[in-house]
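User: Once you have settled down, look closely at the record that follows, taking as long as you need, and be ready to discuss the fold:
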Amino acid sequence: MSLLRTARLPALKLLQCVHEQHLLLASITAFNQSTYRRPGQPKDNTPPWKKINFNFSKGLQGIKKNFTLLKKELCDPWVGPEGKSLHEHMLEQNRVVWEFRGPESLQDWIVSSDEVIGGQSKVYLKLGKNNTCFLYGTLCSTPPKDGETRYSGYCALRSKQAVKSFDRKKHHDWTSFNTLHLRIRGDGRPWMVSIATETFYSHQADDQYNYFLYTRGGPYWQDVKIPFSKFFLSYRGRVQDNQYPIALDKINTIGFTLGDKADGPFQLEIDFIGVCKDYAHTEDIAYELYKRNPEV
């Protein structure tokens, strides 16, 4: 399938393509949580205690880091919400959450591909010439010849889980905003934007909110604004019948997935990822909510 035809795929067909990749990712998660060993993979007989890396200097650095974060957590509320003055917090209309201005900014991101299940896709992350996040690689949809894997061909970029002191989870609070703002430059391929939120039950750990990101290609940057109401809830790649608005006070991570079945090189350049307040947008959720037992 040519790249031009792929970029013009209907949303439903594109969702089906990415759905297969989400099923693939779900199977990977299940494999990692069990003792399953893929065909051809050597058995790891290393004792558990040998996998622990004891380092005294790193331990001291960790203690210093955690107590610095703890001090910040205790002092910031006295200044105002999230360490900002109340006046600044109430008038804030735009916020840059992730900005790429140095090599240290790439440490908050993780790249993955179907290599973990024997695929042939390659993905790399580096700092671009203009101090931007430059994601590039090669997509290959040929499944591994192990007799089990049916689908392959995906590359993904995801932010790491933010943590507070002593490795406690830290959530992004975007309740003052209603739109996701991206400044990107792509090659014409369609991507999937995924937002993961904190869930109450363990069986909801794979819930994600997704929406499509269509890049134009070419040398020009594009500013993309996606209302949070447009994101739809999915579980392991399956769109759910019951749709709910995103819990904007419990945002964990954001990610970008490519799985359009167009084998070949790709690239995506990201300048910043932020949120903004669009006063012209007033809807809470863009999808109809059906009652299973309607009132008579």
Observations:
- The longest strand covers residues 264-276.
- The two ends are 50 Å apart (CA to CA).
- Residues 56-79 form the longest helix (24 residues).
- The helical segments are 3-7, 11-32, 56-79, 86-91.
